[in-house]
Amino acid sequence: MSDNIELRPTRLEDLELMLAWRSDPEIYEHFREQQEPLNWEDHVNWFINRPPDRHDFIIEYRGRRVGSVNVDKKDYIGVYIGEKSLWGQGIATETIEHVCDILERAEFYAEIHIENTASQNLFEKCGFKKIDEYNDWLKYRR
After folding, report:
1. Do 67 and 80 touch, CB atoms closer than 8 A?
2. 10 Å Cβ neighbour count for 120?
3. CATH number, residue 68
4. Domain that holds residue 76
5. What 8-state DSSP symbol labels residue 4?
6. Is 137 inside a domain boundary?
7. How do residues 112-124 score in pLDDT, each as one tens digit?
8. 68 belongs to a structural domain
9. 17-40: average pLDDT
10. What are the pLDDT digits (tens) for 71-80?
């Protein structure tokens, strides 16, 4: 991973910025379990009650928080860059590759909305292959 990008565990003090990112319709439009802006109490409750085998990281770019990546207990990866001015800069690509390296799972998965071609291209660039399609979702595996 480049010197410009670092990952660190998500902390309580990150939630306000994450709430702002995740309340932007351009960011949550392709999320599986979110169709509207979040509210603060639900967001904090989610964070406090996350399963212990879930990994949530803040992506820092040049010392600034710019996005989030997570891996759940079934080895599904989710990523978003909340700072839209940095979309297309390769930050998510480096992040996914790094997470796959450090967590050392046999396989990783991603569920991507069929209209989210940017994420499809991102995960394919990281070595994920489409293995299934159901409703409006594509399942990828690496």
Report:
1. yes
2. 18
3. 3.40.630.30
4. 5-106
5. T
6. no
7. 999 999 999 999 9
8. yes
9. 89
10. 999 999 999 9
Query: Does the residue 128 lie in any domain?
Result: no
pTM (2 decimals)? Answer: 0.92
Amino acid found at 131: I
Total domains in the chain come to 1
Amino acid present at 114: I
Residue with structure tokens 């990523």?
A: 79
Any idea what DSSP says for residue 128? -
* DSSP annotation string for 40-63: HHHHHHHHHT--TT-EEEEEEETT
Measured between alpha carbons, how far is 23 from 12 in angstroms, rounded to an integer? Answer: 17
Q: How far apart are CA 40 and CA 20, in angstroms?
A: 10
pLDDT bin (cut points 50, 70, 90) of residue 99 is very high
- Other CB atoms within a 10 A radius of the CB of residue 24 amount to 13
**What pLDDT is attached to residue 1?**
67
What phi and psi, each to the nearest 5 degrees, are found at residue 39? -110, 155
**Would residue 133 count as lying in a domain?**
no
